[in-house]
Write a structure and sequence with these properties.
There is one protein chain. The chain is α/β, with parallel strands linked by helices. It is 39% helix and 15% strand. The protein is built from 15 helices and 15 strands. The strands form 4 sheets. It has a 6-stranded mixed β-sheet, sandwiched between helices. Strands 10-9-8-11 form a 4-stranded parallel β-sheet, with helices on both faces. The longest helix has 18 residues. It binds pyridoxal-5'-phosphate (PLP). Pyridoxal-5'-phosphate binds next to helix 5, helix 9 and helix 13.
Length: 419
């Protein structure tokens, strides 16, 4: 008998099983399994459980294995196999399925970074949300929101975005077979508009900054009866993002000393707080990083109420919500949230360093939390008594971003007068 915990979806991916092996135990078959997070191949499940999960018993009777391309034909996507070790429990949120039974977001790896650890003087783990299908964490919450809307009969989505929420909406809409219109402000790079159009969505350029595009999206939702996909301010979005923390707990196995993340409108922050509360880690300090010129969260914290910035001057346009969500401000009263600012040059420098160190290209929005590590600010927070002097480890959410290429990075450096 399987307990509900053991049957909760789904921790393993496999590749290479050939037809005819239906019903065979996976152990010993000629095909290879591959770990869903790090793609490390293995020939049997026991190796996986030891290497990746490090879980000691009690041994349940079975481990579920699943894959995208089932060799057993449509509808047969799982195979029950004997397992000596404990099933890796994931919450139902980790297995959001589309019409074909496939997930929308992936479970992302957690990797230790030597370079970031050296810069911060403590072990730094990266939660690699940049490897999501749409290049950022946004797919988690937005696909969850869209799936719920689809269940209620949504006929058309509209989303106002600096880019990444739009990619996530376009992706989810396509999977659900529902049309979407994406509204972007005029400061959106042409390459981003083109990439969105290539997703098969209609793109409309409207307004100077995201807030203007948002007003347009609301108007369309009202007049056309479309469902407005808010890029950061909805409980379903936060619930979707929260899956990241549950995965983190499972993969890391221990509580980190702090979590560093970027704040734009505050959806990521709200999702991480929801996740921390879910797993009982609400005492983990969160370092919430913005760039100067897109610092509506910092301004709100200092004022003790929501503040609307007159304009967004930072190059990290994805962080450019003139007013942060009310929920973001609430989060600061529920958890220890340390607000930090970096300047644009530091964020862009961090993007470049991270590319060299980890061979990953991310947007300046993601460069902001990385800059905090690279500029020695963790140690400064420790000296100031805001963070424990004996931090064992830190997790940085590598939130990613799809709107960046080498040419764009070079253009940003030129714009900022960097070499
Ligand atoms: C790559 C990236 N990181 C961080 C953020 C900030 O997320 P939030 O608006 O949920 O605070 C965004 C928002 O668009 C983003 O695209």
């Amino acid at each position: 008998m399987k307990t509900p915990e053991e049957t909760k979806e789904l921790t393993w991916g496999w590749q290479g099983l050939s037809p005819g092996e239906k019903g065979q135990p996976v152990k010993g078959i000629p095909g290879e399994l591959s770990c869903k997070w790090c793609s490390l191949p293995s020939r049997n499940s026991a190796t996986f459980t030891k290497q990746h999960l490090g879980l000691e018993s009690p041994a349940p009777p079975h481990l579920y294995v699943w894959g995208r391309a089932s060799p057993f034909g449509p509808g047969a996507r799982r195979q029950e196999i004997p397992a000596r070790n404990k099933v890796f429990p994931l919450t139902p949120m980790a297995a959001q399925l589309d019409r074909d039974g496939r997930g929308f977001h992936i479970l992302t790896p957690v990797l230790e970074s030597t370079a970031l650890s050296k810069a911060a003087g403590t072990r730094v783990y990266m939660k690699l949300e940049n490897v999501q299908p749409t290049g950022s964490f946004k797919i988690r919450g937005i696909s969850y929101f869209c799936q719920e809307a689809a269940k209620k009969g949504c006929k058309h989505f509209v989303c106002s975005t600096g880019g990444n929420a739009g990619f996530a909406t376009a992706y989810a809409a396509k999977k659900l077979g529902i049309p979407a219109t994406i509204i972007v402000p005029t400061n959106t790079p042409q390459a981003t508009v083109q990439k969105l159009e290539e997703q098969g969505t209609e793109v409309e350029v409207f307004g100077k900054v995201w807030d203007d595009a948002y007003v347009k999206a609301l108007a369309l939702a009202e007049t056309e009866g479309w469902v407005n996909v808010h890029p950061f301010d909805h409980p379903l979005i936060w619930q979707g993002h929260a899956s990241m923390v549950r995965e983190l707990k499972d993969l890391l196995g221990h509580k980190p000393g702090a979590i560093i993340l970027a704040v734009g409108g505050g959806g990521l922050l709200a999702g991480v707080v929801a996740g921390l509360q879910d797993v009982g880690w609400q005492d983990v300090p969160i370092i919430a990083v913005e760039t100067k010129g897109a610092d509506s969260f910092n301004a709100a914290l200092r004022a003790g109420r929501l503040v609307t910035l007159p304009e967004i001057t930072s190059v990290a346009k994805c962080l450019g919500a003139k007013t942060v969500s009310a929920r973001a401000l609430e989060c600061a009263s529920e958890c220890q949230v340390i607000s930090q600012l970096v300047d644009d040059v530091e964020a862009v420098q961090a993007v470049e360093l991270f590319l060299d160190d980890e061979r990953l290209l991310v947007q300046p929005a993601c460069g902001a939390p990385l800059a905090l590590l690279y500029t020695g600010r963790v140690q400064q927070l420790q000296r100031e008594g805001l963070l424990s002097p004996d931090l064992d480890s830190i997790v940085v959410i590598v939130c990613g971003g799809s709107s960046i290429q080498m040419a764009g990075l070079q253009a940003l450096k030129t714009q900022l007068g960097m070499k």
